[in-house]
Amino acid sequence: MGNFNSQLAMYNVQLKIKSAYRTAVQRHGEKIKYLQIDKLQYNDMTSIKYMIIKRKIMNNTEIPKFHETFNPILKILSDGNVMYSRDMINKVVETFYSHLSKEKLEQRTKSGDILISNRIAWGKSYLKKGGFIEFPERGRVKITDKGLQSIEKELKLADVENADNFLDFYAEENKNKSEKINEIANSTPQDLIDVGITQIENSIKTELLEKLKNINPYYFEKVILILLKKMGYGEFIETSKSGDGGIDGIINEDKLGLDKIYIQAKRYGKNKVRETDIRNFIGAMSGDTKKGVFVTTSEFHSGAEKKAHDAHHSIILIDGIKLVELLHLYNVGVQVKSIYEVKELDADFFEGE
Questions:
Q1: Distance from C-alpha of 102 to C-alpha of 72, rounded to nearest angstrom
Q2: For residue 94, what are the contacts with CB-CB under 8 A and spacing of at least 6?
Q3: Which pLDDT value is given to residue 327?
Q4: How many C-beta atoms lie closer than 10 Å to residue 308's C-beta?
Q5: What is the three-class DSSP state of 42?
Q6: Of the residues 123, 191, 202, 262, which has the fewest C-beta atoms closer than 10 A?
Q7: Domain 169-353 listed as CATH 3.10.20.600
């Protein structure tokens, strides 16, 4: 069904190309020649609108902002094939930005990354969150039907951020542009650094949650046990994958195993954990313990929250947002990419002046 939808989307785009080309030849023949696209192949994803967008890009001699790479990324992926992310980035640079000076193409960020590659990678991240592309495998990227339908449109940042499935963790991100401009104007450099770090962290948490929703369910259970161990809850025991009675792992709080914490991990997409799930979890907790942790990548239904709250057992509920915050905090599933140093004047050094 996915291949059929992709082919249908590409066919619809091709029909638009044919119509746009016929109209353009009738009304703007000279402009067509000027853009050097007087001959168009209908089975190509090229179109009049796209060529105008490309010409605009080629006329820019500055390194693109991350949101200015949206259309180039979609164009490179427009054949519908899966590409390695690194190959995609290199192809975008080669196709759209090779006219930039060597100095600009080699310019680096403070952490040592090639700046233009860093910008394209951020563009890729935003397109993923907006549903225009997907990551079918680790390190690979593919355009979606939504992306195919957007190739001829000059995508703006607002188009991607306002997409129906754009993942957003914090309401702070939804402030309007005028508020953001005023905040920037009244912010100190330290404020701007803090905001930038927060945005990076939120983006990583979004990617992390998406990854958790798609990994093997058994491996997800192991991730939770590793997290709890890093949080200082002692050694863990994985239960067998059959006949575990709804218990995915057991944490021994002491060396002798006198105090135990039972763990239940549910890797859900959109489904919420319901009251019956909590009830079954409580039932699976034998007389060994009254402590339990129930973790999910989604959310808890209000009935599930009430059941956990009213239970005689002490049950902690961890939803998807709380989970990625803990994983990020305890460096589980993430790693340090860059470390920045911000220096200030050492007044003590000059006291002997």
A1: 20
A2: none
A3: 95
A4: 23
A5: coil
A6: 191
A7: no
Which tokens in the block code for residue 172? 């702070």
- In the beta sheet, which residues pair with residue 236? 251
For residue 279, give the nearest of 315, 331, 329 by alpha carbon: 315
In whole angstroms, give the CA distance from residue 143 to residue 137: 13
Residue from 247, 241, 240, 222 nearest 327 by CA? 222
Could you give the CA distance from residue 212 to residue 266 in angstroms, rounded to a whole number?
11
- What are the residue ranges of CATH 3.40.1350.10 in the chain? 169-353
Residue 190 tokens read as 């330290």
pLDDT in tens, 26-50: 554 544 433 443 344 433 444 555 6
Alpha carbon distance 124, 89 (integer Å):
9
> Nearest-CA neighbor of 293 among 265, 273, 321?
265
Structure tokens at 146: 């939504």
Other C-beta atoms closer than 10 Å to the C-beta of 317 total 19
Kindly state the DSSP code that residue 300 receives in the 8-state scheme. Answer: B
The model's pTM: 0.58
The rounded distance, in Å, linking the Cα atoms of 192 and 42 is 47
Is 130 within 8 Å of 161 (Cβ atoms)? yes
Q: What is the 3-state secondary structure (H, E, C) of 301-317?
A: CHHHHHHHHHCCCEEEE
Cα–Cα distance for residue pair 276/282, rounded to 1 Å: 10
pLDDT in tens, 174-219: 445 455 556 666 667 777 778 888 888 888 898 899 889 988 888 9
Pairing mode of beta strands 83-84, 140-143: antiparallel
- Residue with token string 């050094």: 349
**Alpha-helix residue ranges (DSSP H) falling in the chain:** 2-27, 29-34, 48-58, 70-76, 85-96, 102-105, 115-129, 145-148, 157-161, 177-185, 189-212, 217-230, 275-284, 302-310, 320-329
- Give the sheet arrangement for strand 314-318, strand by strand: 235-238, 249-252, 260-266, 291-296, 314-318
Cα three-residue angle 194-199-201, rounded to 5 degrees: 95
